[in-house]
C-alpha cells in the first residue's frame, strides 16, 4: 500500500508503521519494494534519496522449488542505506549490502556487494565508476 501512495508524508508514515526504519529528512519515492520476510532487515538512514521503483531484497530464496533444498542458494541478510546516499530509479540491492555514507547507486544498477562511503556504482552487476570527491569543487 505504501509503495503506491502518491502523498509523500503518508507514504513515509505507512513505511514506518510497517516497521521500516527511515531516518530524518529521507525521501522515499513511489514504488519502493522491500523483501525481508517481515524480519525488519532493512535500515534507511537520514537524508537518503530513494528514487522510484527501487527494490531492496534482504531475503531471497527459491521458495517451494526443489532448489530450496540447497541451503547456499538462500540468503537472508540485512541491508543498510547509510546517511546521505542516493539510490537511483529501478536499482536493485541484494542481501547483505551496505551502501555507504554519501554513496550513489546509478539507475538500474544491481548491487550485490557493499559500496564504500562516497563511491559511485553503476551497472549489472554494479561496479565502481567513480567517487563523489570528483564532483566536489
UniProtKB/TrEMBL annotation:
The keyword Cytoplasm does not apply. One of its GO terms (molecular function) is O-acyltransferase activity. Pfam families: Hexapep (PF00132). Keywords: Acyltransferase, Repeat, Transferase. It comes from the Bacteria. Gene3D superfamilies: Hexapeptide repeat proteins. SUPFAM superfamilies: Trimeric LpxA-like enzymes. GO terms for cellular component: cytosol. InterPro entries: Hexapep, Hexapep_transf_CS, Hexapeptide_acetyltransf, Trimer_LpxA-like_sf. This is Acyltransferase. Belongs to the transferase hexapeptide repeat family.
Amino acid at each position: 500500500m505504501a509503495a503506491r501512495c502518491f502523498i509523500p508524508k503518508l507514504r513515509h508514515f505507512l513505511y514506518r508503521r510497517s516497521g521500516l526504519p527511515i531516518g530524518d529528512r529521507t525521501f522515499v519515492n513511489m514504488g519502493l519494494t522491500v523483501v525481508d520476510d517481515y524480519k525488519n532487515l532493512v535500515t534507511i538512514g537520514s537524508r537518503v534519496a530513494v528514487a522510484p521503483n527501487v527494490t531492496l531484497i534482504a531475503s531471497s530464496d527459491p521458495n517451494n522449488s526443489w532448489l530450496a533444498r540447497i541451503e547456499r542458494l538462500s540468503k537472508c541478510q540485512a541491508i543498510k542505506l547509510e546517511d546521505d546516499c542516493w539510490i537511483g530509479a529501478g536499482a536493485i540491492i541484494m542481501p547483505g549490502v551496505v551502501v555507504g555514507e554519501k554513496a550513489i547507486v546509478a539507475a538500474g544498477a544491481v548491487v550485490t556487494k557493499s559500496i564504500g562511503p562516497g563511491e559511485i556504482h553503476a551497472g549489472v552487476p554494479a561496479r565502481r565508476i567513480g567517487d563523489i570527491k570528483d564532483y566536489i569543487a
